[in-house]
Prior knowledge:
single chain, alpha/beta, ADP/GDP-polyphosphate phosphotransferase, P-loop_NTPase, kinase
Amino acid sequence: MFTLEDLAHIKKRKQLIHIADQKNIDISKIQRSLRYEDELRALQAELVNLQQWVAKKKLRVAILFEGRDAAGKGGSIKRFTEHLNPRSMRIVALSKPTEEEQGQWYFRRYIKELPNPGEIVFFDRSWYNRAVVEPVMGFCTKRQYNKFMVQVPGFEHMLYEDGAIVIKFWFSISKEEQKKRFDSRMQNPLKKWKFSPVDMKGQHLWNKYTKYKEQMFSKTHTTFSPWIIVKTNDKKTARLESIRYVLSMFDYIGKSKAKTTLLPDPNVIVRYHRHIEQIDI
């Protein structure tokens, strides 16, 4: 163990590692955590550069975060956005539709939230609620679901034709890891608010979720709007690699001077295809 005297004299990381070696203390977890923080800081600096370039070019960028509950969508969005300029960035997490919105065209409430020129919008769940969550939980009729599945490729093609850039992430998590995260939330007083009875239903209805998820992919994965699978059993890796993927999609100013690789790990980030190995099957 480190003593207070040891810690009082440590000013650099190398000193910590040196003392740990002398005392035969295993600090591998600490080292992994420090490497993660270093990588995250470098990638977040690149996101700042990307945002400035998007604003200058007047691009419209929407990034959709979809996946089962506890897959790490919110945590990833937090890391994407925590150092960005809030004037040209928004996080959209819509609550259930109002009675008035229920009588409108389904896409209308999302159209109002699409990015303006020079803006990046992060959707913490999106119009794809109707593709998986709503039919699984009985929140929409079969007719509403079928209508949505027919309309969504056309809707996204219009966005593509109009110059909007839409990135669709599916955060993939195993059933065992989801259960572990649910249990952790219940034990943490600061995270209890994240847990709801609907979440636990997701465990009981796992196979039904899988069925609707696969139908969603088969009907909405297109050349102009593909699904990008992020394997998220390792939260920190998923955060880093999803940021890398977004950065890799743009040829922004200063990209060549990045202090870390901007190419995502193909073992973590995969473009969907029918025979891809997923962990949330």
